[in-house]
Amino acid sequence: MRKETRTVVYDEALRIEAYRFEGIVQPFPNHFHEYYVIGFVESGQRALSCKNREYTIEKGSIVLFHPGDNHACVQSDGGTFDYRGLHIGRDVMLDLAEEVTGKRVLPGFSRNVIRDEEITEYLRSLHKMIMNGRTDFEKEEALLLLISALIQSYGQPFECGVPECREEIAKACEFMEAHYMEHIYLDQICRHAGLSKSTLLRAFTRAKGITPYRYLETVRINEAKKLLGQGVSPLDVAIRTGFSDQSHFANYFHQFIGLAPGAYREIFSDRKEKGEQYGK
Asked: Distance (Å, rounded) from C-alpha 227 to C-alpha 239?
């Protein structure tokens, strides 16, 4: 079996993360992100579930996830998986969309899985420039061309990509987002939402595509990424995000992100050290 490699680079100029996974077999559980994901499959085949729809992704497939899109994937061909991905925050996407369309509105995409040679070329070229540390404006140009092509060919209002859930479910989400650092009980969420346990579980899973507990885990992991990016130690992050211990936190982080917390933190530590070295 090929040696597994996982590389993540944060591009300071573009303010986005670039992921490169090679030779991996790890499944990823049902979860969501607070940011956009634009990814490209280099090789391998996976069964992907996104917003309760099933897909087969393989060489040449492009995945487009909005913030909040629940998704999971598992290897389906007995081999390994090679993948390039970009993670783009809402604020950055707003800036890009404004540059491209003249309107400061988050874009939505009509499909979660596409095959498009033009977009593939933009995505692969941009990803390689980021991974190689390119600093010229060609990199920014490539990002704008990518977003422009995606909006032109697959754009739709953002609210169509992430539908609003009903009031009770919104209240449940609100409670977990406010108390993720605490030990939360299902009773507390139900009282806040005004639903029984069985009704909440059915309604929440139908509306969000994941269970309340998986939603809470995802909120905690997303907050953990922010803290690690600020240089907080994995132990302190585990405590501040409501995990029972560092081992529990590390296991979940690796399941969701594909990296150990310490490895993710090092991306930003290296960036800070280089900035101090050059007096930035």
From this structure: 11
